[in-house]
Amino acid sequence: AVKNTALIHKGGGGTGFSFSKLRPARDWVGPNGGVAGGPVTFLPAFSVATDIIKQGGIRRGCSIAVLSVDHPDIIKFVMAKNGPDALTNFYLSVAVTTEFIAAVNVGADYSLINPHTKEVVAKINAKDVFDKIVEQSWKTGDPGIVFIDRIDQDNPTPELGRIDSVSGCGEQPLLAYESCNLGSINLARMLRVGDETAEIDYPKLAETVKTAVRFLDNVIDVNKFPLPEIEAMTKKSRKIG
Fold first, then answer.
1. CB 16 within 8 A of CB 166
2. What is the residue extent of each domain of the chain?
3. CB of 182 within 8 A of CB of 171?
4. Integer Cα distance of 100 and 98 in angstroms
5. 91 forms bridges with which residues in the sheet?
6. Coil, helix or strand at residue 100
7. What pTM, to 2 d.p., does this model score?
């Protein structure tokens, strides 16, 4: 996965990761008698790769890590950027569920679930967790929140899988190995300016949007993708933003 990250950033792309399926810290690992390090221990490796491999050799790439709010290591994840130099190449976001928000509203406990065994390993107060998220976001800018259940309700391609992460800056919800081409329109160029007034030139804006959509869709066909899995998924769903 770190190698794939480097290849994507080398080609000018950003990356989004869901760590929600990784075993929690101290979880027993198979016949070798070892224990798992947990999702948070993997973040520095991805962060270093992002720092070293610049996007197209020009600027550092953008990465986001997402962890489900019911993962046993959620508190460690929320606190992962507590130091000034911690994970400087990563955005963090918590994937919150409808069940969690309902528990926050009434101050109830909710379950932490081992993603490997599917067993409930603990119950903690939802409002306490939410307060930690808010406090850390205020202090460090992270974590953000991804309303994962609400996003997946409007998943346009459910037959391809469930959405569990987003693009590097959160613009587009994505399935595993999906990518999206991003464009922008300079709204300052979409104005009719008079002597004392200015108004939006809607016909010009509409034509610009139409052209931009066609352009971004065409890029999917001519682009050289860093991984064959990304090319296959992107050509199935053709997401732009």
1. yes
2. 2-176
3. yes
4. 5
5. 64
6. helix
7. 0.88
Select from 1.10.10.10, 2.60.40.10, 1.10.580.10, 3.20.70.20 the CATH code of 2-176.
3.20.70.20
pLDDT computed for residue 59 by the predictor: 62
Q: Are 141 and 78 in contact (CB under 8 A)?
A: no
Contact 185, 209 (CB under 8 A): yes
pLDDT digits (tens, 9 = 90+) for 85-133: 778 778 899 999 999 999 999 999 999 999 999 999 999 999 999 999 9
User: Helices (DSSP H) in 11-55: which residue ranges?
Assistant: 39-52
DSSP state of 222: H
Helix (H, G, I), strand (E, B) or coil at 130: helix
**Cα distances (angstroms) measured from residue 196 to each of 86, 192, 193, 199:** 50, 11, 8, 11
Residue 143: burial class (beta carbons within 10 Å; 0-12, 13-18, 19+)? buried
If you count them, how many residues does the chain have? 241
Least confident of 5-19, 65-79, 176-190: 5-19
